[in-house]
Structure formats: C-alpha cells, structure tokens
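Attaching the record inline, Q. Sequence:
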Amino acid sequence: MVEVGRDKTLELLAAAPRGRVVFSDQGLPAIRPVNFLVAANGDIVIRTHADDAALPGRAYRLVGSDAGSGPVTGRCPRRTG
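Structure, as predicted:
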C-alpha cells in the first residue's frame, strides 16, 4: 500500500468508473455501491436516492473501484469525509 497526497487521490478517484461508500448504520458497517463525480474544485458529489438518509451528518469513506471495467489495476483510492 502506498499513501498518496490529496491531489493524486482525487485524480485516481476521478478515473474510477464506480465506487463504494462505507459508513456505519446503527453501529454496524454498511457498504453501498454508488455513482459519483469529482468536481474540478475537488468536491466529491455522491449520487443517492432522494429518500436515502444514509450519508448526511455521518462520517463515511468513498472507495473508487475499477472492478468490472476491464483489466484491474489493483488501485483502490479512498477519501474520508
């Protein structure tokens, strides 16, 4: 595992075709597949359903994934927010 800086992390996340968001739900770990966008200013926008209250006010981690999109690079960029 290699730690990279914020800019490289955002670059790798932006290149990931999909992601998983990891958070705690009633004290238990929960993982959901998500579509997301890394904006030019570095903001990360995660698309959820209008009635999905899973993320607001919670700590979470977004993990980018290239699984299922051809050869897997083994990269797994993460950003915590």
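Strands lie at 18-25, 28-38, 44-47, 60-65, 78-80. Residues 8 and 77 are 9 Å apart (CA to CA).

More tomorrow.
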